[in-house]
Design brief:
Oligomer: homodimer
Low-confidence stretches of chain A: none
Number of domains of chain A: 2
CATH class of the largest domain in chain A: Mainly Alpha
Mean pLDDT of chain A: 94
Largest interface: A-B, 55 and 55 residues
Shape of chain A: globular
Helix content of chain A: 55-70%
Chain lengths: ~230, ~230
DNA sequence: CTCCAAAGGTATGTCAGCGAGCCATTGGCC
DNA sequence: GGCCAATGGCTCGCTGACATACCTTTGGAG
């Protein structure tokens, strides 16, 4: 049973401002939106965009520095840069099965919906190029960087729905699922299969085949979903 | 263009604790989860569930009292009750078109996905009864209470996916869309048509016809979506 | 009738988070 | 070589939010 009120009277805030800020920055880095070597926006601008004070943002950045994830340089053309070598993430807490199913359900709904929606729009040349570029990056990715490139492709698909809320929701759920995926091994055969599926999804989106894109995405997601259910139950 | 970074470096918090708490309470009331005449959870419990201090929760409740939405009674078996007669909501701010499309896109993805997912599960007798009850309530609703009963039915569908996150996301997006819908008139013919579509969606969910449930929900949502696009563009 | 449990109402001390301003460093431009 | 704009680094006072404790009201149980 999952009473409706539990879903509505859930916590208003996921954590304090500091924690949520760290979470956001990690999201941008782990999902490959700001790749290794690149610079985050300047503190003053980033603080404004995140709706957080510069002091709080700096505390968050500081904790990423301590974790070896970013480095800051002063002076003009300075800034905060994502390290080229990202440290392996620590194993998180134990995950309950209901929590897992919840995340997987939401992911399926959001990502299959996004694929269908993206295919149903008339994409601009920039968007089409973006999709193809992310697909190529993903195919040629090493094992160590695969999850990041994979997420980056999925986010590109989300982005091409034109809905910022949808994109944000997908980013959030991907963070939840990736945290779980990091506990199970990533094997080259899975990776090759995944690339084939990506190709199919992107092709159908570019062809405007909404129903086909949805089905291809559903099949793709089912792969990791059943892997996860197997490993964590 | 909707750069990916805009979707990720969005504000960490939608407002201060007080505002977000008011929003949550309004959500429960406007979406019909706590119907007129019923009692909210006790302050101490509600504050805990919302992850907010009792002082802040009380400020929020106070502002709902001032707006004539709830009333508080002291003593044992007292509490905070939703008023039987809810005041008409004030016309909100002007809405931009991109914001509208964003909300509608997200709604379509979430709700068609939820319908499909609900149909694909084996629902328990309680869930089946719940769906039928909400459907009946909706059919027999007066104009004034239609949006609330309608939302309550859609939330029951969301709930029967078993995913709390999905249910919460649907509640959020419905609040956004309802705010827009309140600016356009609700006519009896629309209402009758809507009821037919509801019936179709629920029937297909109960029959386990996932693809059909999705299509029926998509059609249902298209109705209000095109109405909205017409009125607000 | 009395008591008391459960609910709302109130007060207070503490701390996180904010805004604003200033300092320190750096590298390109003139 | 000197200037200066853009960046990170730092400080201080103010306010919102919180935890905690206590008070007041109410209606049923005994």
């Amino acid at each position: 049973m999952m009473p409706l009120r539990d879903a509505l009277f859930r916590p208003v805030r996921a954590g304090n401002a500091f924690e949520e800020t760290v979470e956001r920055l990690m999201q941008a880095i782990r999902l490959g939106v700001v790749p290794p070597g690149e610079r985050l926006p300047a503190e003053r601008e980033l603080a404004t965009r995140l709706g957080v004070s510069r002091v709080t943002l700096r505390e968050a950045i500081r904790s990423l520095q301590d974790a070896g994830i970013v480095e800051s340089r002063r002076g003009r053309y300075g800034g905060t840069f994502v390290n080229a070598e990202l440290p392996a993430s620590l194993p998180g807490r134990r995950v309950e099965v209901p929590e897992l199913l919840d995340a997987l359900t939401l992911r399926t709904v959001l990502e299959t919906g996004a694929a269908e929606c993206a295919a149903g729009r008339s994409l601009g040349p920039g968007e089409r190029r973006n999709l193809r570029a992310r697909l190529a990056e993903c195919s040629s990715a090493e094992l160590a960087e695969y999850r990041r490139k994979d997420s980056r492709l999925h986010l590109a698909i989300a982005e091409s729905t034109g809905s910022a809320s949808l994109t944000g929701a997908i980013a959030d759920v991907r963070m939840r699922v990736n945290e779980l995926l990091e506990r199970i091994p990533l094997l080259p055969p899975n990776l090759a299969h995944s690339n084939d599926q990506h190709e199919l999804v992107v092709t159908r989106i570019l062809d405007g085949d909404a129903e086909g894109a949805r089905r291809a995405m559903a099949e793709h997601l089912d792969g990791t979903a059943s892997l996860l259910r197997g490993f964590l139950s």
